[in-house]
Amino acid sequence: MNRIILLLISFTFFCSAFGQAPVISSFSPASGTIGTVITISGNNFNTVAANNAVLFGGIKAQVVNATATQLTVKVPAGAIFNPISVVNTDNRLTGYSSASFAVTNTTPVNSNLDIDFEPEAYVKSNGYSSYSEPRSALADIDGDGKTDILIVGDYSYDLT
Q1: What is the pLDDT of residues 77-89, one digit of tens each?
Q2: DSSP per-residue letters across 79-131
Q3: Which domains does the chain have, with CATH numbers?
Q4: Are the C-beta atoms of residues 118 and 105 closer than 8 Å to each other?
């Protein structure tokens, strides 16, 4: 009986010591351009930089340095105004900031930009539809690290 109790206590300690989700208490600066280096403060970060996935609105950032209480990261291209999330890739637990990072743009707007969009790609509908469903979404569908725009047509439910 004593061994069972000891085993349960050991298991509880092991799970609580190694199964903690990252906690983001603050980040600084609160805004910046693409490439800005920011410091994220909190707890339960992985001490190996490569084992922390830091996301700005779904876009993965480069982690420059990592300690258990602080991460230094570069704001990635494609980042949008959203809370920052940190995923510990060892235990797959995620923490979110309560505030959003504001991406500022110092590049002047140029009306002569040559924007090259990929051709439309259609995804077959499953036939189910509802007017309460969102008509658009942002996600990294192709895994290239850039946000993709998904739009549902007005008269069809094909995703483009």
Answers
A1: 988 889 999 999 9
A2: --SEEEEEEETTTTEEEEEEEEEEE---SPP-TT----PPPP--B---S---T
A3: 21-103 (2.60.40.10), 118-160 (no CATH)
A4: no
